[in-house]
Design a protein that fits this description.
Nucleotidyltransferase, domain 5, 6-stranded mixed β-sheet, about 300 residues, 11 strands, globular, alpha/beta, 2 domains, 13 helices
């Protein structure tokens, strides 16, 4: 069986999924890793990737390429998202990845990011009705509305946990006024997203959502099987927003289920989730452990193979 890998270079984290392809749309996971490197740190202020952020992200990608080769991956597909779309020096980063790691990274637009995220969802959850899905990352949030294999609407908003933390949540612990200002900023930003109807399931994906599910489930060791398909109610989200607002960053690092490196940006991410639930008047959502990298595996390797059979 062929072995392949997909790498997602995001504004907050980089992720790899190594898979052994099977029959149809199924594959066996050989490795699935995430490293929080903050490639987009300071981007809003400087318009560029900082040298430390570039260095630590390239180091992580070097480890990922080594993992892919060790696991026998014959092909690697890699994509970059908002930070690499926006940074003035993104070409330098892409060139260094190409020349030092032999890794070709394709920078994709927000609509393509949303499409790949949707493919990840429909290949991983049984959803008999329509889907309203969103993927909130460090630099942007992608929205997808679809039914079955058909995407009816997709778009991206520049609402990400890293950028919003830097802009609005400067105190430690965060003050009530700072959180109120962030939520007030989010409400009008979400106006392009309208609820398409009643027979839709909301699905959230990405590190913020999986972290919130792990906190709810009190997972000292992350378990993707328990997280995938789990539910977060609006009350759950409100409770976590309040918890993160009151706790200093050092205290958040000890919360069971929360990765310590997400402690400083989890409040902004949770606030985005809460604002979306309020805006669409939804009382709960399902969490998908699958993300863009899984959609990339499906799109670049699984679907083409199936079409030739």
């Amino acid at each position: 069986m062929a072995r392949v890998a997909a790498i997602d270079v995001g504004s907050n984290s980089v992720k790899i999924h190594v898979a052994e392809l099977g029959n149809g749309a199924r594959w066996k996971t050989l490795a699935d890793q995430t490293e929080i490197t903050r490639l987009g740190e300071g981007l809003r202020d400087t318009g560029a990737i900082t040298p430390p952020a570039m260095a630590r992200t390239l180091e992580a990608l070097g480890r990922f390429v080594s993992t892919a080769r060790t696991r026998g991956a014959e092909r690697i597909a890699a994509v970059g998202t908002m930070c690499l779309r926006e940074a003035a020096n993104s070409e330098e980063f892409l060139m260094r990845a190409r020349e030092t790691l032999g890794l070709e990274i394709e920078v994709i637009d927000g609509e393509e990011e949303a499409r790949l995220s949707y493919l990840a969802i429909i290949s991983g959850l049984p959803l008999p009705q329509g889907v309203i899905a969103f993927d909130t990352g460090g630099g942007s949030t992608e929205f997808i509305v679809g039914r079955g294999s058909v995407i009816e609407l997709r778009f991206s908003l520049n609402l990400g946990s890293v950028a919003l933390t830097q802009e609005f949540l400067r105190s430690d612990p965060v003050t009530p006024d700072e959180l109120s200002a962030l939520l007030a900023h989010l409400a009008p930003s979400l106006r392009p997203m309208t609820r398409p109807g009643k027979r839709f399931t909301m699905v959230g994906m990405g590190g913020t959502l999986t972290s919130m599910a792990a906190v709810k489930l009190e997972l000292a060791v992350y378990d993707p099987e328990r997280v995938h398909g789990s539910m977060l109610t609006r009350a759950d989200v409100e409770a976590q927003v309040a918890q993160y607002r009151k706790a200093p960053i050092d205290e958040r690092r000890s919360i069971v289920g929360l990765h310590p490196k997400r402690a400083d940006v989890i409040l902004a991410g949770a606030a985005i989730v809460l604002a979306i639930l309020r805006h669409l008047d939804m009382d709960h959502l399902l969490v998908s452990d699958r993300g863009l990298r899984h959609g990339l595996i499906f799109d670049r390797f699984v679907a083409p193979a199936a079409s030739t059979e």
